[in-house]
Amino acid sequence: MNESSDFDETHTRLRVRGNRVLCVDDDPMVCRMLARRLTRIGYVPATASSATEALGVLCGPDSFDAMITDYRMPGMTGLELARQAVAACPTLVVFLLTGLGPPSQTNLSEYGIAAVISKPFSFEELAHKLEGLLRREFVAQRQRSA
Description:
Blueprint: H1 5-14, E1 20-24, H2 28-40, E2 44-48, H3 51-58, E3 66-70, H4 78-88, E4 93-98, E5 113-118, H5 123-145
Helix pairs in contact: 3-4
């Protein structure tokens, strides 16, 4: 992943600060890297090392705007985590990270997946997709409440 400070500075100016993002991966190094980079561009990240831990965090007192989850994890796949997370938090924007490509024969929207990012990935790609989908969800929420 590119550690471009120009990207970080530009991206921070373009987006609304403070969106909360839950990063879920059984690889602690991936969680730390995502959290560090998300913090640098103005997001407020939290991490979970399993789907079960993620569901506990999502159902806790803090609300989240987005969740970035690995597809393959012990105990529960990212797809099943997404389904349960979106059932509990309907406005949650969910990203699925996968080194295997998108799951075949699967309608990802049925699971609440907004986007699939293939590993290895560019953090810039993830950040742009995250910003775009969070902005779209913000507009949709405003339209529903109007």
